[in-house]
Design a protein that fits this description.
The protein has 194 residues and is an alpha+beta fold. It has helices spanning 9-24, 31-43, 92-103, 113-121, 158-167, 169-184; strands at residues 2-5, 49-55, 61-69, 76-83, 106-110, 126-129, 135-138. The longest helix has 16 residues, at 9-24. The mean pLDDT is 93.
Length: 194
């Protein structure tokens, strides 16, 4: 298995569409499209987000992760995570987190004890209590020593995206079509060379 940084624009859009659909689920309304539009329209062009996959030896994607940089540009936060194939590999998204935790200054946010336990198993060992009961985990490579020196993660202004959709129907239709095209063209295999 290998970690693949998806740089090819067409593959990246397809994988982001699939990740948003998987992460939000069937009854999510417009939320997957809003995240897709914000990431493709703002974070990717600013090189503030990365899309990574855990792929098997043939390049078949098993899990996807969207990482956003923090304001310092030193740390990365897992924004979204999804298992694509749990039949051949147990918890592939946690294996992906484990690989990333060994290599990168990674931050994860856990909303409950079970999620924190899964991240701990994946190698996230330093934990802090954040706002509203959220637990914040940092990999060994993350430079922060606590919440006080933890930079803010760059995020999508979801309300801003929704407002722009309301003002510009053509933009909404364009992102909607790109999202659907991405889902339809999800790659069966990923290449590290793309």
């Amino acid at each position: 298995m290998k970690v693949v940084h998806i740089k090819n624009a067409a593959q990246r859009e397809a994988c982001l569409a699939r990740l948003c659909a998987e992460a939000y689920g069937q009854d999510a309304g417009i939320a997957p499209l809003v995240t897709f539009a914000g990431v493709t329209g703002v974070l990717f062009p600013q090189e503030a987000a990365r899309l990574l996959a855990l792929a098997d030896d043939q390049g078949k994607p098993l899990a996807l992760a969207l990482l956003a940089l923090d304001e310092s540009g030193e740390g990365m936060t897992v924004m979204q995570l999804a298992d694509l194939d749990t039949e051949t590999v147990k918890a592939p998204s946690m294996r992906l987190v484990g690989e990333l935790a060994m290599r990168a200054p990674l931050r994860v946010d856990a909303t409950d004890e079970a999620q924190e336990a899964r991240f701990r198993e994946a190698g996230i060992e330093r934990w802090f209590s954040g706002k509203a009961g959220v637990r914040i985990g940092l990999s060994k490579r993350h430079p922060a020593t606590g919440l006080d020196d933890l930079p803010r993660t760059l995020t999508v202004d979801e309300q801003g995206v929704v407002q722009s959709f309301k003002r510009d129907r053509a933009q909404f239709d364009d992102y909607k079509q790109r999202f659907v095209n991405g889902l339809e063209n999800f790659p069966a295999t990923l290449s590290a060379r793309h």
